[in-house]
Design goal:
Blueprint: E1 9-15, E2 21-28, E3 34-41, H1 43-59, E4 62-73, H2 76-79, H3 81-88, E5 95-100, E6 119-120, H4 123-132, E7 139-143, H5 149-163, H6 170-188, E8 192-199, E9 202-209, H7 230-237, E10 240-246, E11 249-256
Parallel strand pairs: 3-4, 4-5, 5-6
Antiparallel strand pairs: 1-2, 2-3, 7-8, 8-9, 9-11, 10-11
Length: 263
Amino acid sequence: MADVERPNALTVTGAHTGAIMSSCLVEIDESSAVVRLTGVLDAAGAEAVRGALLARLVDRPGPVVADVTGLRVVDPAGRSVFADIRREVADWPAADLLLCDPAVDGPARPDAALAGVPAWPTLDAALAAVAATPLAAVLTADLAPAVGAARQARELVTAGCERWGMPTLTDPACIAITEMVNNVVAHAQTPMTVRLAPQESTLHLAVRDHSPRRPTFAGISPPNRIGGRGLLLIDTVTRRWGSSAVPDGKVVWCVLHPDDEAA
């Protein structure tokens, strides 16, 4: 494949046994939800493709369409990256991965590696599916790692819970977002993006920062230990929580359900 200068493009290369080179070009369309992948994808390039798609998902709320029309995948590890990404972002606020893959309309058996990934045979059909479920409910704020960041995040959460008719989640969500933001202020010390969105009856929160250090939860802290209880609070007031490594940092996310009670 000839090298072509294109804006917003990432070339992922890897080597097969026997020195046969593979190359996958990732092109981001800043004006739409589309990320185009062309060339050849093998196991060596799968992790870089994963990083590129996660970076787009963390930067842009809403579903992303990966157009694999011009992509040839040469082993299962490369193809399974799309299902892996979709599972990774399942609990992020307002995030999903869809595929434009002409193979889904062909005579071949369904690809087990793509199980659970919605796919359409044409880009028009995939974008129509995105348009059919417009992104109407999501709030985002970029915050500095400074005193007052947690207060700003709580104000955003309170506004969201009021807008979406989730009053019982306001207090536990404010507890969770306070601890998530304070962890960035105290440990990551980088700019952050706070995002929240409803999904049916649940509320999804996420804080993205630019530190690769991921939180670890070791259970209840000893009574004589100062600090270290932030993750315990998050674990107490949420249905589930976790973290995802993304290029240039991480996303810490949590999901709250109206049946859960704050401690």
